[in-house]
Amino acid sequence: MRPLNRWFARIRNFATGLRGDNRLLEEIEQHLAMQTEENIRAGMAPEEARRQARLKFGTVAAVREEFHGEEVLPFLEHLLQDIRHALRQLHRSPGFTATVLVTLGLGIGANIAVYSLVDAVLLRPLQIRNEKRLVQVFEERPALGLSKDTPAPANYFDWKRRNHVFSDMAAVQGDIYTITGNGRPEEVDGAPITSNLLSLLGVQPLLGRSFTADDDKPGNAVALISAGIWQQRYGSDPHIVGRTIHLNGVAYRILGVMPFGFTFPDRSALWVPLALTAAKQLERDSHFLQVYGLLRPGVTLQSARREMIDISLQLEHEYPATNRGLSTSVVSLREQLLGGSRLAIFVLASGVVILLLITFANVAGLMIVRAANRQREVAVRVALGASRLALLRQGLTESLVLSIGASILGVAFALGSMPVMGYLVPETIAAWAKPEMNWTVLLFTVLVCITSALAFGLFGQSAAAARPQEALSHGSRGSTDTRQRLRSTLVAGEIALTSIILTSAGLLGGSFWKLAHTDLGFNPDSVVTVRTDLPVSAQTRYREFAARVSFYQRVLNRVEHLPGVKAAGYTTFLPFTNPGGSTTVLIQGAPALPIGKVNNVGVRVVTPNYFQALEVPLFKGRTFTEADGENKTPLVVINQKMAQQYWPNGEAIGRQLRFDDHGTPLMTVIGIVGNVHQANVETPSRAEMYFSYEQDLGIPGYFKPRDLAIRVAGDPISYTHAVETAIWSVDPEQPVSEVQSMRHLVNGRMETYVLEAKLFAFFSCAALLLAALGIYGLMSYSVTRRTQEIGIRMALGAQRGQVLTSFIAAAFRLLLVGLALGVVGSVAAKQLLGSMLYGISGIGWGVGALPILVLAVSIALAAYIPARRAAAIDPIQALRSE
Amino acid sequence: MKQKRDVQQGTLALMVLKTLQVLGPLHGYGIARRIAQISDQLLSVNQGTLYPVLLRLEQEGAVASEWGPSENNRRARFYRLTRAGEKLLEAEKRDWEQTAAIIARFFEVKVEDLS
Q1: How far is Cα A708 from Cα A722, in angstroms, rounded to an integer?
Q2: Which positions ≥6 away from A348 have C-beta within 8 Å?
Q3: Which residue of B has its CA nearest to A67?
Q4: A71 with A19: CB under 8 angstroms?
Q5: Which residues in A lie closer than 8 A to residue B29 (C-beta atoms)?
Q6: Are residues A254 and A206 in contact, defined by beta-carbon separation less than 8 angstroms?
Q7: How far is CA B33 from the centre of its chain?
Q8: Cβ contact, residue pair B74, A34, below 8 Å
Q9: C-alpha angle with apex A602: A598 to A606, nearest 5 degrees?
Q10: Where are the alpha helices (H) located in chain B, listed in sequence order?
Q11: Which 3 state secondary structure label does DSSP give A1?
């Protein structure tokens, strides 16, 4: 109770700014007067009496201070004093202050920016309420090399009916809509959804209502729009519900507006009812849905996976024609959306933390010098009675003030770089997970601020003179040497960290360069692509082979006659859209394969001008022509890889093969084309077979051509409207999707690489600059300190050149130490980056060596300037000076 | 040096309380004189150190103070012991006696060992 009372009294006094001084002064005055009177009575002269009274009492000032110390919160008062003192000191050395503020500000700012990214992507829960229990369900067809494929409607409905692990399942289709009216025509991603999708996700519309089961019937032209569209096209009209929106020429009634940032899935801005017709619902052969499930409480992902596999086995039994070899996979939604970005973000975070450490090292070095300069002042204060604690407190306050200033700058810098950070968010959650300055990020900022204040603040203190008399006398060498050694260690550490960043940057840069310059086997520029997935199930008009052939012919005819079109061709899957699409074959004349081994070869069905459209070179023989429609002989065109793999010693042309299936015909190889990267940039090409679209060889309907590639003159995107019109003139009801330039398709994944490489390049430059500054500062100070010594050496016969080289050699010694320290880190970095790097083994140490060379040169340059100053010392001047 | 002061502050407070208990309300000078009389070696400690101690005791509620006329009709601040102060004094007294007893026992043991 006692201390508590005291505390309350203290706080009260502090708040009211009370000084009980007046009362104390009066009391003291009275006390002294009474003592004086007694002294006079004892026989002293009045002045002597007064003086003795004073002596007996003690130092009034000290008493007042202690009295005051009991009155208020001395800690806070001292803090305020210290802050004022620190600000004054910093004001007096603007160069130092500016340097520290800027470097530290950048370092802290970069860390805040990256942390906001980490927060947005990895830490913040997604906008979807049920996120934790949401999964996505895919079809898997390993035999055909298809993974995470979009399920067919009939399969979806059967899964939904038969499962016990999901409390609900919903389906979504991806589509593109052209909005007209209320503004200029705009193309947006839209999603036909089942009526239960929104409740499955746990998301409510901002305005209006979501779909009901009634809405989910064919013919219901109702839609939900995004908040973005509501704002931009309808001016945030509060009476938006009931208004119309024209999608692809059809008027839809707006039922509601979805919340800001909701773009599920991917980048949808519109949602309409999926409204599958009864016929479509039975389609088991047309795969185009995205299926989501909500796990029942208590059901694990594993058990859901098991049950789905069981169900798909049942379906395989019941519908062998369509579902043979078809299994399922279940992936948690978050995992699906984030994918491999976790590693990329982690790497980025590591890089930026290392940069901050380098900044700390630099600032710590500066603090040491500053402490050295104030040695004398500190010594005087210690002699006057300042306690170590008070000095420490003052020093740390100064560091804290600097850190706070730098943090404010850092926040400003981070805010400015938010958009850049936004680019690093994976596309799938880009609209939700925007890096922003929220409470978590601010808290992080505060933590970094305090850490930095401690990190380099203590360095400033460690160099403080403990022995006042030594500091007060001239030429205090001893402590300076330890100080120099401390600084040298810091600089070596900086170099080590810089080498790690440089190596990483080199690896990333090299990897990116390799990616950008990989020969893909085709030319993606000036090509526009389109997907028309013809439904082939029993009820559709395209169930007949001939009907499909006719479609392709008519579309190609129209498209090829468009002005500016050079070549157009269909294929099953364009490169970079599907890594799978393969089957097993038997080579005629080859020895039987051991049990369990199969020849897995990619399958693509193409129209004759496909190879020209993508500029895939022909090496031997010929590709298909229109005449091959009449040809009775089954034909196949293979790629070089396949030729090398199966006929390494001889001629592949004329050889035969067939599908690993009973009753399939023998097919003859007529041509060899170049290898194409089917999956992505990193994966090399595999053995590939191409078939003519006109030959009915019993290839599963799944392999029907669906992607159209058109080589054009000029900007590919400018042709999209014409191409769509051409297609719709053949079949107005055929959905056209995935309209984009081939280059855009190919570059898809490269964007993150590019940005990461750029960021690391920036880190490298920053780190290099800081390390160079560190060396420069160290050398420069050393030269100044040793001016006399150098003068003596030169007077005794040392050449200027020798002095120069000795300094540069010292710098190089530090460089080597730093590199040695950094090697471990660099190797670790290579391991970590491993999965992120493309062709890493190929990159090897050549790429790692180049940045180190750059580092060495920078260090040499940084050391050269002070070294030259040392060499230019006039011995006589040096000996005369202090 | 700080440590010594701390110990002295504690004992000084105790002496102040006891003085006030025995002699009734006193002003600062009076307390200083009485303490000086009772314990001669503490005289070397500056009288001024008394005032922070008085303030602390006042904040704790062990003493109360008010202005009043001194012997020579001067205006002086008089301190008196409160109920809480009385209790505090008793508690501290017990603590001291206990400590003294333990220390005494230690000294006794030494003498026995020798004999």
Answers
A1: 14
A2: A114, A117, A424, A756, A759
A3: B52
A4: yes
A5: 30-31, 34-35
A6: no
A7: 12
A8: yes
A9: 145
A10: 2-23, 28-38, 50-60, 83-114
A11: coil
ipTM entry: 0.77
* A712 has a pLDDT exceeding 90: yes
Encode chain B (115 residues) as per-residue pLDDT tens digits. Answer: 333 344 466 778 888 888 899 888 988 888 888 887 777 655 556 677 888 888 888 888 889 988 888 777 778 889 999 998 899 899 888 888 898 888 888 888 766 666 5
Give the span between the Cα atoms of A467 and A382, in whole angstroms.
9
Residue-wise pLDDT for A692-705, tens only, equals 999 888 787 778 89
Q: What percent of chain A has pLDDT over 90?
A: 21
What CA–CA distance (Å, rounded) separates A325 from B65? 96
**In angstroms, rounded to a whole number, what is the distance separating the alpha carbons of residues A769 and A774?**
8
Residue with tokens 């080589």: A711
Residue at token pair 């370092």:
A107
Q: What is the largest CA-CA distance in chain B?
A: 63
Q: Tens digit of pLDDT for each residue in A162-194?
A: 999 999 999 998 777 777 777 666 767 789 999
- Do residues A880 and A792 touch, judged by C-beta distance below 8 A? no
Q: Which helix (H) or strand (E) holds A275?
A: none
Helix (H, G, I), strand (E, B) or coil at A188: strand
* Residue of higher predicted confidence among A13 and A365: A365
Cα separation, A562 vs A723, in Å, equals 8
Q: Is the pLDDT of residue A760 over 60?
A: yes
CB count, 10 Å around CB of A521? 22
What is the token pair recorded at B84?
A: 């809480």
Residues of A whose CB is below 8 A from B57? none
Per-residue tokens: A391: 């000095």
Give the Cα separation of A432 and A264 in Å (integer): 9
CB proximity A306 to B under 8 Å: no
